[in-house]
Specification:
The chain is of the alpha/beta class. Helix content is about 35%, strand content about 20%. A hairpin with a 2-residue loop joins strand 3 (about 30) and strand 4 (about 35). The model is unreliable at about 1-10 (pLDDT under 50).
Length: about 270
């Protein structure tokens, strides 16, 4: 059974949904297990004519690793359909011509340009990197930032926590905040809920005809709705019932499969009314 926020529905009830941005971890899957009926639901969503893109703040895995994992657990998708905060961060590093010190996992590091050893490190790029969150690595990042007041702290995202099979786990946010506190710098935030991320993922699509499906009330739903999208919050992953986002989601559903039901029904009603 899904619930629809009255004010949100009133705003969007005349708009059919042309495209869906779909969160990965906690929404489509939790580690190596799909959420209930998610594999079949994705097929139904594609068959209904809605375009899809998979969007994630995951910074531990490269795009190739994400694609391999999703295919292995039964999802059908092309690697080009994945837009991650790593994708957005790579674009930012290249556009800004940065030569960063990376606090990233070895796998995620593969998506970024090689270090230019003929230049000083002029920035720090930080994501979810449990093996790098030790004193020596954080102290190196601290000193890179202190070396010059123009050196940037680039946070691929600053999530508080994420969902694993054994429960919630600490995200990179506290390490981002620690470097901000120690250096007096304000991080450039790349991933969800930053508008920079959603605008890159939409790639020119009309936000009002698109919906975001996710398990994070703030990063997924509030972030997407702030750029004019609709937002469907699922009760899987790191969903917390006592968190009330503002504005409220367009719809609150049990899982990704019910989110697909909601989209297909909404488009059916819109077509009937046309």
């Amino acid at each position: 059974m899904f619930l629809i926020g009255k004010r949100s529905f009133a705003k969007f009830n005349r708009m059919s949904i042309q495209a869906a941005l779909i969160d990965l971890s906690g929404t489509l899957h939790v580690e190596d297990e799909p959420t209930p009926n998610a594999v079949e639901a994705l097929k139904r969503l594609r068959s209904s004519g809605v375009a899809v893109k998979f969007v994630t703040n995951t910074t531990k895995d490269s795009k190739a690793t994400l694609h391999e994992r999703l295919c292995k657990i039964g999802f059908q998708l092309d690697q080009s359909e994945i837009y991650s905060s790593l994708s957005a961060a790579v674009a930012y590093v290249e556009k800004s011509k940065l030569n960063p010190y990376y606090l990233l996992s070895e796998d995620a590091r593969q998506d970024f340009p090689a270090e230019d050893t003929n230049r000083y490190q002029d920035s720090v790029v930080i994501g979810l990197a449990p093996k790098a969150f030790n004193y020596d690595c954080l102290n190196k990042a601290f000193n890179v930032l202190l070396e010059n007041k123009n050196h940037q702290l680039v946070a691929i995202h600053q999530g508080k926590f994420y969902k694993r099979n054994d429960g919630l786990a600490l995200g990179p946010g506290c390490f981002v905040k620690g470097l901000e506190f120690a250096t007096g710098r304000c991080a450039k935030l790349i991933g969800k809920p930053n508008p920079y991320f959603f605008e890159g993922a939409l790639d020119g699509l009309d936000p009002s005809s698109c919906v975001m499906i996710g398990d994070d009330a703030n990063d997924d739903i509030v972030g997407a709705m702030s750029v004019g999208m609709q937002g469907i919050l699922v009760k899987t992953g790191k969903y917390l019932p006592d968190v009330s986002p503002s504005p409220p989601p367009t719809a609150l559903v049990e899982n990704f499969s019910e989110a697909v039901d909601w989209i297909i029904e909404k488009n059916r009603l819109q077509k009937s009314a046309a």
